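Supplementary Text 2. Reproducibility record for the structural model of the 157-residue chain.

All settings were left at their defaults, and a single model was retained for analysis rather than an ensemble. We include the record here because the model underlies the residue-level annotations in Supplementary Table 4.
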Amino acid sequence: MTTPSDSSSPAPAPSGPTPSKYDDHRRPLFTALRNGAYALGVVAVVSVIAWSFAEGSPGFWGALIGGGYVLLTAVSVLATSGQSIGTIGAVVLGGWLVKVVLVLLILMLLDPLTFYHRGAMVITLIVALVVCIIAEMVGVLRTRTTYVTPVSGNTGE
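Retained model, structure tokens:
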């Protein structure tokens, strides 16, 4: 017979259900980030190759600049995923504002320079944005997550 003071007795089993991978509310964000990164990689490689053949070195640099910082929104949401919805909204909105200002500053700085092709940069940027948004959306929509987590001891009566 085992007594409570016996140190060789096994630890009691947890009373509630064990969490599964579907209980992690950050899972859709990780999937969106992964899908967006893959999509951005494909767009960047295809665009750099295509614009390099079409316009030479300026096309290469334009496509490289255009495929820049598209995934920052998904990263900012993922970084704040443990915070309140107000904090997440403020970070996403603030991040969007910072990105817009950054794009305008980069465009102003690059305007007098001639080492890149403007069309390559703009088209690559637009295509990268659209493709990444679609890839992230598909990642979030197809990821299975738990909507309701049962509370232990609650029988629903």
